[in-house]
Known about the structure:
Elements: H1 3-32, H2 46-71, H3 75-102, H4 111-142, H5 152-177
Helix pairs in contact: 1-4, 1-5, 2-3, 2-5, 3-4, 4-5
Amino acid sequence: MDPQMLGMLLFIISEIMVFGAFFTAYFFIRVVDGNPWPAEGTELPKAIAGVNTAILLSSSVTLHWALEAIKRGNRPAFKAGMATTFLLGACFLFIQINEYVHVGFAPYDSAQASVFYGLTGLHGAHVALGLLLLLIVTVRAFRGHFSPQAHRGVEVPGIYWHFVDVMWVIVFSTVYLL
């Protein structure tokens, strides 16, 4: 395994542990303490979060499409896939921030609210980092970088982006649906 791939996988393992700590707090509040979820008098925008989930999962599809395109030497499809992936990710983050503005409770209102903002905010920070990586790859794509033989700079950030997507499915399922 090459060093870049190993480094990304080790980083992702450490990030799984960070998310694990936040999920521990979530399950402690919800299961051990038996507190209602969400807190009484609050409601989570499940439909908006569901649409946002579809947007984020779509970004994984477009990223995969972009990677396959550069592997085949199809530069226009690669550029389109990277730009679309970045825009979908930015849309997800914008909707998440908009949700915070309109959700109707603040992190200091209850333990449940703190955990909600903690988990979704942690994920949002990972999306922001992922968007930075995607932006770098997209700019490089438009500058003619990468080829069918040299595309590791797309694969490694792509693994991180797919990790971010998988983590969102877990956050969405546990926080919004269960």
